[in-house]
Design goal:
Layout: H1 2-6, E1 14-19, E2 25-28, E3 34-37, H2 39-48, E4 52-55, H3 58-66, E5 74-76, H4 77-85, H5 92-99, H6 143-146, H7 154-178, H8 183-204, E6 206-207, H9 210-221, H10 228-243, H11 257-266, H12 276-279, H13 287-304, H14 307-313, E7 319-320, E8 324-325, E9 335-336, E10 357-365, H15 367-376, H16 379-384, H17 391-398, H18 402-414, H19 419-431, H20 433-447, E11 452-453, E12 459-460, H21 470-504, E13 510-515, E14 518-524, H22 528-546, E15 555-561
Parallel strand pairs: 1-4, 4-5
Antiparallel strand pairs: 1-2, 2-3, 6-7, 8-9, 10-14, 10-15, 11-12, 13-14
Helix pairs in contact: 3-8, 4-7, 4-8, 8-21, 10-13, 15-21, 17-18, 18-19, 19-20, 20-21, 21-22
Length: 570
Amino acid sequence: MTWLRQRGAGRGDLVGLAVAPDGTTAVAAAGGDGRMTSLGEVAMADDEIRPRWVTWSQETAQWLVAGGARVATCWDVAAVHRLVFGGWRADPGWAWAHLHGLAPDGVPTEAPEAGPPDLFSEPDEARAGADDDPVGADGYLRAGWARGGWAAAPARILRWAQLALETAELQRAALGRLSETPIPVATARSESTAELLCAELSSDGLPLDLAAAERVLTGIIGPRPRDEVHAAAMRAARDAEVLRHAPGGMTVDLRSPVQVRSLLAAAGIDVPDTRAWRLEQFRESSPLIAALLEWRKAERIATTYGYAWLDEHLDGDGRLRGSWTGSDGAAGRMTASSGLHNMPAAMRQAVIAAPGHALVRADLGQIEPRVLAAVTGDPALAAATAADDLYLPVASQLGVDRPTAKVAMISAMYGQTTGHGGQALRRMRAAYPVAMAYLDTADRSARARRELRTYGGRRIPMSGGPGDSPAQVAARGRYGRNALIQGAAAELFKMWAVTVRARGLPLGARIVLCLHDELLVHGPAGQAEAMARLVGECLTETARRWSPDGRVRFTADISIVRSWADAKLE
């Protein structure tokens, strides 16, 4: 796109982009100059110039993908707003108000759609002339523009692209005030590009073999029911496997916790509730408990991941699709719908590479303690990360066995202060004073309801009030200390994911799943070894950018598999 070059736009420069639902597209360069264009021209400009496209939200990325234009990078206003200001809400009016110091509760509400105008009505702002201003006299974005009126005419689409660029510049300045380091801006870039990845994940889907999935279901809950009568008979048969262990032929509704407690009491097992972790201790001694726990696994699959789930979410091309978001709130983790993030382990057998393709599965190793070492700069903990299994040097430092060392580390990050974890925590304070001071400061700040910020700059607001009970205050402290580590780990993970996304394109590799600390990459079988190497190299590159001093080593378990189930599960 020569027009962008003429205006001095180069690689990585911010360029506003607005794409209407019908594909009408506008771009805006620095200085406010802009023009109407097409998705094809945007794709060409991305190849030739590689600017950083400024979008209001992932919705733009979705329209790009739908139109066949996949761009390399972006600055997502909504994603950056969540980073700088915290919380989930990040619509244009809300983001604009925060950046301009306007009261959030004054953001114009989304009025209901008006009917057609009559002789006695004035046209509302959504019907006003194409050259009207999106900013009202009160300084807020007009509700009609923010809720979609920006797409009513080409001139409006162009103004919307210009406004996105203006907003991004304000966000970049706000990030610069957070820290003297470049980390918050780098985080904003990777968080934004993660929204592009989310749009692509939603479109591409996860390869899932229908025949394999049905074989898994048949083995757990039986064959696909012919009708509702058959389905009811199958449910009754699964129930009978448990009830045959009931004392005196007792019959209860296994889906009722109250009735299940009565059943267990009749069998001489008195428990305050029927949570799985509480019942596990009786598995070996009670056939009834063992059968009940197995029934629950099957029931969960039958009701949530059964044949109806396959019919609803698995498309004819063998891809399981759901909507993806780049941040779930304070923790900042990527999330997905359609069961993609909670799929039972058994169903992984059906996640199979397409013919002629392979899967590369990569799982970050012991990520949270390694992140703790990086964000705190604790020299002793950083030294421990040189080991493949950092719990071994931690155990040596604490003078305990490995299981106890692991408990100590988890207790430090989750704030367990009693029992075995509490005893181990005291040893951690002596061995890793810098890391522990960081966590303790976060704990005290959270208890006092002072906001926190992750290593990457994400704001973590604190709720609660002066009347909170001691238990509520302590819980808030535990939340605060862990949110800093989980949030930073999520930021590192997404920076790794978008690096793999970019570097994998020449190999034909595409990410098909992001699950907490795990990546699943799909690509040509002939490139499998190269893909596996690339995933590891991208982690090294990411760690070097994210933690420039290089004292902390990050590791990943990487394997080439045909089926997701073939990978070692932690």
